[in-house]
Amino acid sequence: MLKIDNLIIIGPAGSGKSTLSRSMGDWLESAGHRVAYLNLDPGADYLPYVPDFDARELVTVESLMKKEGLGPNGALIRAADVLEGVVPEIIAEFERRSGDSDFRIIDTPGQMEVFIFRGLGPKLASALHGRAAALSIIDPSLLKNGVDLVVLKLLGLVVELRLGVPSIDVMNKTDLYGDSIVEKMEREIAGGAFKDRGLSAELADQLYPIVNGLSKRRRAIPVSAKKGTGMEDLYKAIGESFCACGDLT
Ligand SMILES: Nc1nc2c(ncn2[C@@H]2O[C@H](COP(=O)(O)OP(=O)(O)OP(=O)(O)O)[C@@H](O)[C@H]2O)c(=O)[nH]1
Ligand SMILES: [Mg+2]
To answer: Residue 4 CB: number of other CB atoms within 10 A?
Structure first.
């Protein structure tokens, strides 16, 4: 039977989901894989890849705003609920159009909470055929101190809890922020950066050993989706998340 690997790209608004979809897809194709793309963002204006199936064929945020007089957030929620109602049909049509692909890249809505916390993400993840992993993007522009690092690592765990698939933390935009921003935060934490910063620091202090213990297998992979760097490391991490031997073949 043909092996299919689904990669669900998740991250906060503007973190680089669509750009990473393209650069990971390009890398996989250059390594000889057949790649198909599913766009699940009904609010996307522009996509840097050509989707095999596009949620905007069914519903768009813009049309719902006009038709139902909703604001952008309300319309995105409505659109996600519409998509949730037809998950099996979306998967069937996507698979029909991308029959012989061995990697399927799934780009998700700009507002990640709509995908993660409502039904669309969990329903989609459980209905996919083949193996699936989430690539959870950490946007370094949101990372100002050690508490933020704990928050963003927790988000990766939340993705895993909600979708029921392994999640790989991906540190994007390293062309702007460098490869070592996480190490810098970790050094700060080790040096007592949580101390004397009130309630959130106290909580982060208690949570850090947990997220850090779990993060042995959750080392954030540094990439630049824009430049296409780090894709080979990401590919290896995907393999490791699927099987302990780290082999994708
Ligand atoms: N410098 C730099 N810019 C990046 C990188 N990845 C994405 N961007 C830029 O960040 C902006 C947002 O990228 P997208 O790929 O649209 O991000 P997204 O998460 O899909 O955005 P939404 O779907 O709107 O939430 C674009 O201007 C990208 O060019 C990167 O690795 N480096
Ligand atoms: Mg996008």
So the answer is: 18
Question: Candidates 18, 19, 221: which one to mutate for ligand 1, based on the most atoms within 8 Å of Cβ?
Answer: 19
| Residue pointed to by tokens 């969990």 | 122
Ligand 1 atom with the smallest distance to the CA of 21 is 15
CATH of the domain at 110: 3.40.50.300
Atom of ligand 1 nearest to the CA of 110: 25
Residue 201 lies in a domain: yes
In a domain, residue 248? The reply is no
Q: How do residues 38-83 score in pLDDT, each as one tens digit? A: 999 999 999 999 999 999 999 999 999 999 999 999 999 999 999 9
> In the sheet where 221-222 sits, what is the strand order?
53-54, 35-39, 103-107, 5-10, 131-138, 167-171, 221-222
CB-CB contact of 168 with 241 (8 Å): yes
- SS3 state of residue 126: helix
Count of structural domains within the chain: 1
- pTM equals 0.93
Answer yes or no: are the C-beta atoms of 61 and 75 closer than 8 Å.
yes
Domain, as residue range, for 111: 5-242
Give the integer Cα–Cα distance in Å for 155 and 164.
14
Residue 32 has pLDDT above 90, yes or no: yes
Q: Is residue 70 part of a domain?
A: yes
Q: Please answer whether residues 186 and 149 qualify as being in contact, where contact means their C-beta atoms are separated by less than 8 angstroms.
A: yes
Residue 71 lies in a domain: yes
Which residues, listed in sequence order, are joined to residue 134 by a DSSP beta bridge? 8, 167
